[in-house]
C-alpha cells in the first residue's frame, strides 16, 4: 500500500494559500474528499507525517509567499479547529505579517465540542470569514451523513457556534455539499435552517471519486 504521508503544510489553490494543520477530525463524512485520494486540486499529498508546529507552519507560509494570494485559508485534510491554539497563533502571525490579507477558516463547526468550551470569541480580530459546514437539514440526517463522534448533539452545537461567531467574525456562512443526494427539497430545508439562524447558505461543488 502506498504511503502518501508528507509535510505539505501550505499549498496553493487558485489565488488562495491553504494551510493544512491536521488530519484529525471528529467526523467521518460519507462524501469527504479524503476518501478520493491523497491531495486536492493537484496539491501534493495532504496526509501529514506528523502535525506541524506553529514555527513550521509559519515557515511553510513564508516559503510559499503571500504576495500573489488573495486569501489564506485554514482547511486541509482534517478539521483545523482540532488544533485551535496553533490555528490562532498562525492567524495572529498572518494578521501581523500580511496586513490586509483576508483569513478564512473552513470548519465543521464543532470547535466548542472539540475544546469542551465556547470558542467563537477566540476568532475575534483574527479571522475574516468562517465557513461552517451544515451539510444536512436535520440532526438525524446530519448524523447519517457526517457520522460525528459527538452524535446528534453535534447538529445543534455547530449552529450555536456559527450564531455565536457572528458577534466576532465579519462574515459567517454555512455550506452544504451538492452531492447527488442533496435534492432541491433538502437544499430548501437547509436554507430554512440558515434563515432561522440568520446565516447565508452556500452550496459547494461535489467532487466524486
Ligand atoms: S468534516 Fe470535513 S474533514 Fe471531517 S470528515 Fe467531514 S468532510 Fe472530511
Spell out the CATH superfamily.
Answer: Aldolase class I
N-to-C SSE string, H for helix and E for strand: EEHEHEHEHHEHE
Q: Write out the strand line-up for the largest beta sheet, numbering strands in chain order.
A: 1-2-3-4-5-6-7
- Residues in helix, %: 25-40%
How is this structure best described in words?
With 209 residues, the chain is an alpha/beta fold. The chain has a single domain, classed as Aldolase class I (TIM Barrel), CATH 3.20.20.70. It is 31% helix and 16% strand. The chain contains 6 helices and 7 strands. It has helices at residues 54-64, 84-97, 111-115, 139-146, 153-165, 184-197, and strands spanning 10-13, 16-19, 71-74, 103-107, 129-133, 171-177, 201-204. Strands 1-2-3-4-5-6-7 form a 7-stranded mixed sheet. Helix 3 links the parallel strand 4 (103-107) and strand 5. The longest helix is centred in the middle third of the chain and has 14 residues, at 84-97. The chain is globular. The two termini are 18 Å apart. The relative contact order is 0.15. The site of iron/sulfur cluster has 10 residues, from loops.
Short description:
By secondary structure, this protein is α/β, with parallel strands linked by helices. The protein binds iron/sulfur cluster.
What's the topology here?
Layout: E1 10-13, E2 16-19, H1 54-64, E3 71-74, H2 84-97, E4 103-107, H3 111-115, E5 129-133, H4 139-146, H5 153-165, E6 171-177, H6 184-197, E7 201-204
Parallel strand pairs: 2-3, 3-4, 4-5, 5-6, 6-7
Antiparallel strand pairs: 1-2
The structure holds iron/sulfur cluster.
Amino acid at each position: 500500500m502506498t504511503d502518501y504521508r508528507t509535510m505539505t503544510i501550505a499549498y496553493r489553490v487558485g489565488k488562495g494559500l491553504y494551510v493544512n494543520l491536521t488530519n484529525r477530525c471528529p467526523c467521518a463524512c460519507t462524501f469527504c474528499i479524503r476518501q478520493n485520494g491523497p491531495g486536492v486540486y493537484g496539491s501534493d499529498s495532504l496526509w501529514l507525517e506528523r502535525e506541524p508546529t506553529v514555527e513550521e507552519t509559519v515557515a511553510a507560509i513564508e516559503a510559499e509567499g503571500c504576495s500573489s494570494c488573495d486569501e489564506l485559508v485554514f482547511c486541509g485534510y482534517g478539521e483545523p479547529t482540532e488544533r485551535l491554539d496553533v490555528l490562532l497563533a498562525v492567524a495572529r502571525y498572518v494578521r501581523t505579517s500580511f496586513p490586509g490579507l483576508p483569513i478564512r477558516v473552513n470548519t465543521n463547526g464543532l470547535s466548542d465540542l472539540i475544546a469542551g468550551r465556547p470558542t467563537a470569541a477566540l476568532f475575534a480580530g483574527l479571522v475574516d470569514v468562517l465557513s461552517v459546514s451544515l451539510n444536512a437539514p436535520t440532526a438525524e440526517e446530519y448524523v447519517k451523513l457526517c457520522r460525528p463522534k459527538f452524535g446528534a448533539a453535534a447538529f445543534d452545537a455547530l449552529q450555536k457556534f456559527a450564531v455565536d461567531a457572528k458577534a466576532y467574525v465579519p462574515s459567517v456562512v454555512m455550506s452544504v455539499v451538492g452531492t447527488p443526494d442533496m435534492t432541491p427539497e433538502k437544499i430548501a430545508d437547509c436554507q430554512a435552517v440558515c434563515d432561522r439562524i440568520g446565516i447565508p447558505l452556500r452550496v459547494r461543488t461535489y467532487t466524486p471519486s
